[in-house]
Amino acid sequence: MASCVLGVCWLLAAGTLVQAPAADPVVSVWYRGTPPGVAREDDLAAIRAQGFAGITWPAAQSAGLPELQRVAREVGLRVAVHDAPVHLTAPDAVRPPAHVDIVISRLGAAEIPALVWRAVAHGARDIAFDPGSSPGSGSGLTDKSGRPLAWVAPAAALARQLTFNGRLFAAVTAGPPVSLQAPVPAGVDVVLLEAPRAWVLVSTNTSHTRVTAIAELPTPIAPALWTSLLDGSGMSMLSRPTGPRWTFELDPGEAGIWTIQK
Q1: Which residues, other chains included, contact 136 with Cβ-Cβ below 8 Å and sequence gap of 6+?
Q2: Does residue 260 contact residue 225 with C-beta atoms inside 8 Å?
Q3: Phi, psi dihedrals of residue 166, rounded to the nearest 5°
Q4: What is the residue-wise DSSP string for the chain?
């Protein structure tokens, strides 16, 4: 079975997305083993079941890497090896490296969408969530009583969106700049991305207050109906000779991802 968005298709096998090419975005979980340095298949299976595409393994635990890679292949996870995680901040998200770390202890679950989508809009393609070395379970996804931790739901939702739309985000390049009318609310960022057959508009709010803003898009963009990648809803803009005008609202930590065909 195939699923298509904006003319790009992904094959589905037995209800699971076929692993995308390496150039596609990858959302992973920092995994240290149970005990540390020893990969456990149940842990990796739990991570995969949530929709994450990979795991990030500490470089200091290189002795356990061959076994980890073997188990990860069986489960269907990619493996990346990095030094200690460096938390991505909101100011850094507008100029991120290809690999970024989200240290869960440094932000609330509600802040995840805006921070990570902003980094993706500005070029990050390898995102690793770090639950810490002693989160309560070997997988890092649950507390000691087995209940999912608060960060897992928004992180997993983002991982599934980037996996499902992996080819789209692998193909996008920076589009024309978007102007925000003054006064620009603190924490707001709007990025226009261009794919061969579509435009993608990413708006994020990393502040702690609800914001209303007005964006001016360039004339190549049509004011027709845009579609949300997150929930499938529609959004239109005011048509003007100088380009569409878009008035939008965002809750604290919220991200809006909109697409339209060219």
Answers
A1: 142, 143, 144, 145, 149
A2: yes
A3: -60, -45
A4: -EEEETTEEEEEETTEEPPPPTTS-EEEEE--TTTTT---HHHHHHHHHTT--EEEEEGGGGGGHHHHHHHHHHHT-EEEEESS--BPPTTGGGS--SEEEEEGGGS-GGGHHHHHHHHHHTT--EEEEE--S-SSSTTSSB-TTSPBPTTHHHHHHHHHHHHHTHHHHHH-EE-S--EEPSSPPTTEEEEEEEETTEEEEEEEE-SSS-EEEEEE--TTS--S-EEETTT--EE--B--TT--EEEEEE-TT-EEEEEEE-
Q: Any bridge partners for residue 202, and if so which?
A: 191, 257
Tokens of 38: 């020893």
Please give the model's pTM, rounded to 2 decimal places. Answer: 0.88
pLDDT tens profile 101-145? 999 999 999 999 999 999 999 999 999 999 997 666 789 999 988
Mean pLDDT for the stretch of residues 73-94: 96
Residue type at 43 in one-letter notation:
D
**Tokens 């990095």 appear where?**
82
CB contact set of 219 (below 8 Å; sequence gap of 6+): 242, 243
Give the CA diameter of the chain. 63
Q: Residue with structure tokens 């996996």?
A: 163
Cβ atoms of 115 and 109 within 8 Å: the answer is no
